[in-house]
Structure formats: C-alpha cells, structure tokens
Amino acid sequence: xxxxPCQASTTTGPGKLxxxxxxxxxxxxxxxxxxxxxxxxxxxxxxxxNGGRPPAIDGDMLAVALRRRTxxxxxxxxxxxxASAAPPCTAPSPHTTKPPQPLAAGG
Length: 107
What we know:
The chain has helices at residues 13-46, 59-73. It is mostly helical. The longest helix is centred in the N-terminal third of the chain and has 34 residues, at 13-46.
C-alpha cells in the first residue's frame, strides 16, 4: 500500500486512474459487506433469531389489558353516562398558564 503522503494529482491521467481504482475497490467492498450481512441475517433467522426490538407486551399481559378494558366499559362511570356523574375538574391544564377558575355557584 502507500506509505507517507499521497502525491497523486487528480488532474493527471495516472492520478485519475488511481482514484478510479480506489472507487472500484470501495464499490466491491461495499458489495461484499452487503452479501455477508445478508448471509448473517439468514443464518440468524434459521437459528430462530429474527432480530429487532423485543415485544413490549406478551400474550398474558394483553389478556389482562383486554379484561380490564372490558370491565371499564361496563363500569357505571363510563363515557356513555351523563357528564354530571363525574366531579368537576379544577386542576390546571399543563398547556395553560392561567390558574384554575373557581366554579360558579349554582353550577
């Protein structure tokens, strides 16, 4: 390989040839890396490892969440009931800078 500073000029014929050679070698190496990556992914898949992020929820957790959602939709304070059933909220919204206003007498 080259030792020391490169004195090749890109304005001359030999310099252009040298850079074209390096570009071709880089393209070949990229193709080799691509092929090796695909082989590695195929090998991992054959061994049962498909990669990626592990699932955030498994079957048992999903079943529990679905049961809770079903129970919540059957509760007496579901959204289908009137709004007066729930107590009024006077907490400030995180999107506003005004303090909460007191409720007017008589509702």
